[in-house]
Amino acid sequence: MAVHTGPSVAKAPGKATVPGPRRPARTRESGVRRALSTHWYAWTMVAPVVIVLAIIVGYPLGRGIWLSLTDATEANVERTIGVNHIPATYEFTGLQNYVDAFGDPVFLQRLVWTIVWTVACVSITYTLGLALATLLNRQVAGRGFYRMALVVPWAIPGFVSVFSWNFLYNEKHGLLNKILVGGGIDAVPWLNDPTIAKLSVIAVNVWLGVPFMMVALLGGLQSIPGDLYEAAEMDGAGPWQRFRHITLPGLRPVSTTVILLSTIWTFNMFPVIFLLTRGGPGDATEILVTQAFRMTFVDSPRNFSTSATWGVIILLLLLVFAFFYRRVLKKQGEVW
Q1: What pLDDT is recorded for position 1?
Q2: CB 236 within 8 A of CB 285
Q3: What is the pLDDT of residue 6?
Q4: Distance CA 314, CA 262 (A)
Q5: Residue 142 predicted with pLDDT over 50
Q6: Which residues pair with 85 in a beta bridge?
Q7: Phi, then psi, of 70 in degrees rounded to 5
Q8: Alpha-carbon distance 211 to 135, whole Å?
Q9: Pick from 314, 318, 283, 298: which is nearest to 109 by CA?
Q10: Is 70 exceeded by the pLDDT of residue 18?
Q11: Rounded mean pLDDT of 166-173?
Q12: Is residue 209 within 8 Å of 121, Cβ to Cβ?
């Protein structure tokens, strides 16, 4: 059977249209070239960002994935001692590190506490941020001052805030215990008791996260038309009904974004845990990222492969969470 390779035949009355040829690859390439030549300024401005991200993020990520598939440690990586250069002797082990990680009780313990830490911090932060945003969205005296005052914890560098809380939590000389002792109450071992230490680090992280949550939700509240509240009030809707049927649905686009960002930040919140308790007392407050840091920079011999494996698992867990989070939002009609 002969194959038609000529130009398309125009449709005549009573005759079927003969399909024309497929667009050649050269036409598609010319389209790409045309786009590059037309938007060259955009590509020029994006190129430095892409290059920087490839160097700062892409290479370390690729290197970490490779190390997670090996048995690299401080004893078998390439290194130079004096004038002697020692080549790398580590070997490829495939997915064995991942199998070992999920079978390691320490990893499972850190994973459970990291999830509890993340859920507690995000839920409390969102609740307090929503409450403060709702209060500051009303016409109250000194509203501008209150807004500025509540943003201060967010404006102060994180390590400064953590060091300040470390001083407040000091069991012997801290301000909190001095107030308690002055009131006839025994001093509390804020950072020396495992359970209290966990509550203490959650409190500090909430302190740091509430301002961002409040500002974001306050912006969302101000975007909700006031006519909706007036119409609902005229129909006899009470404060709780207006909050449930107008405020919460109106805040849904903002809420989904801030909850996702807060979850990712909290899951990887290294400074609060490390600077406040260094994972202590013992290892009670150690989360996945601080444990991975400890294996790479603190423990001896340093275990690069296991640390890289934990880092890749953290990334995969967050990607899986974001994937299912997005699916849930799409089922609810949200576009994200």
Answers
A1: 43
A2: no
A3: 44
A4: 15
A5: yes
A6: 80
A7: -125, -175
A8: 14
A9: 283
A10: no
A11: 89
A12: yes
Residue type, 61: L
**Amino acid present at 252:** R
Which residue stretches of 96-225 are H helix?
Answer: 96-102, 105-136, 143-155, 158-168, 175-182, 194-222
* Residues contacting 6, CB < 8 A, separation 6+: 21
Coil, strand or helix: which one is 104?
coil
Which among 55, 63, 59, 61 is positioned nearest to 316, based on CA atoms?
61
Q: How many residues does the chain have?
A: 336
Across the chain, mean pLDDT equals: 85
Q: Are 124 and 206 in contact (CB under 8 A)?
A: yes
15: tokens are: 């005759």
Asked if residues 210 and 129 have their Cβ atoms less than 8 Å apart, the reply is yes
By CB neighbour count within 10 A (0-12 exposed, 13-18 middle, 19+ buried), where does 258 fall?
A: buried
Q: Are 221 and 133 in contact (CB under 8 A)?
A: yes
What residues pair up with 80 in beta bridges, in sequence order? 85
DSSP annotation of 9:
P
* CB-CB neighbours of 171 under 10 Å: 14
**Residues of 50-66 as b/e, b for ≥16 C-beta within 10 angstroms?**
eeeeeeeeeeeeeebee
Question: How far, in Å, CA of 206 to CA of 122, rounded?
Answer: 8
Name which residue leads in pLDDT, 167 or 330.
167
Helix H or strand E segment including 318: helix 304-331
Spatial contact of 204 and 277, defined as CB atoms under 8 Å apart: no
The one-letter code for the residue type at 84 is N
Asked if the bond preceding 194 is cis, omega within 30° of 0, the reply is no
Tell me whether residue 239 is exposed, middle or buried, using C-beta atoms within 10 angstroms of its C-beta: 0 to 12, 13 to 18, 19 or more: exposed
Cβ atoms of 263 and 122 within 8 Å: the answer is yes
